[in-house]
């Protein structure tokens, strides 16, 4: 369950490793790039030569927790991921893969964007986990399109 962190005022889950990383609590995980809203770090089980995760500091469980108002968050996550790739010397943005795992294929219940490059070098053993349009993986562009069609929920008035 998300709790209010008294220091930062952000929604966090005290049992979530990604919330811990976002607050700088995991000394073994180095933030590659971050801002007030997002943190990017290297995936501990890389499926490609460059494999990063972009997470919001706020605890959001998964893509299923998102609605229309989160479209700009997804865009900012992708922008940060692309900026990290550029910082790493990756210039061919046609050979990258940015996306999210979907239930039941999520290993950490905290929204995280996978940023992989070159996509053509994703290991064969891991390809099934990062195939766009599969049950396990949705690209950030497809997620934004899905959210555009999704109705928002207002607790006072129901679906809007």
Write the layout of secondary structure elements.
Layout: E1 3-4, E2 11-12, H1 17-22, E3 31-34, E4 38-42, E5 50-56, H2 71-87, E6 97-101, E7 113-117, E8 137-139, H3 140-149, E9 153-154, E10 158-159
Antiparallel strand pairs: 1-2, 3-4, 4-5, 5-7, 6-7, 6-8, 9-10
Helix pairs in contact: 2-3
InterPro entries: Histidine_triad_HIT (IPR001310), HIT-like (IPR011146), HIT-like_sf (IPR036265)
Protein name: Histidine triad nucleotide binding protein 3
Catalytic activity: adenosine 5'-phosphoramidate + H2O = NH4(+) + AMP
Structure description:
A hairpin with a 3-residue loop joins strand 3 and strand 4 (38-42). The protein has one domain (12-20, 31-148): HIT family, subunit A (2-Layer Sandwich). It has helices at residues 17-22, 71-87, 140-149, and strands at residues 3-4, 11-12, 31-34, 38-42, 50-56, 97-101, 113-117, 137-139, 153-154, 158-159. The protein is globular. The protein is built from 3 helices and 10 strands, in the order E-E-H-E-E-E-H-E-E-E-H-E-E. Helix 2 (71-87) packs antiparallel against helix 3 (140-149). It is α+β, with helices and mostly antiparallel strands and 160 residues long. The strands form 3 sheets. The protein has a 6-stranded antiparallel sheet. This is Histidine triad nucleotide binding protein 3. Residues 17-127 form the HIT domain. GO terms for molecular function: catalytic activity.
């Amino acid at each position: 369950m998300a709790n209010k962190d008294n220091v930062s005022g952000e929604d966090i889950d005290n049992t979530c490793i990604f919330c811990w990383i976002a607050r700088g609590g995991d000394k073994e995980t180095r933030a590659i790039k971050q801002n007030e809203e997002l943190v990017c770090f290297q995936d501990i089980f890389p499926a490609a030569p460059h494999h990063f995760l972009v997470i919001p500091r706020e605890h959001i469980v998964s893509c299923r927790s998102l609605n229309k108002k989160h479209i700009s968050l997804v865009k900012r996550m992708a922008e940060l991921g692309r900026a990290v790739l550029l910082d790493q010397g990756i210039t061919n943005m046609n050979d990258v893969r940015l996306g999210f795992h979907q239930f039941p294929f999520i290993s950490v219940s905290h929204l995280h964007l996978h940023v992989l490059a070159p996509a053509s070098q994703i290991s064969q053993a891991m390809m099934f986990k990062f195939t766009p349009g599969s049950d396990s993986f949705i690209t950030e562009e497809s997620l934004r399109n899905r959210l555009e069609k999704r109705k928002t929920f207002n607790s006072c008035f129901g679906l809007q």
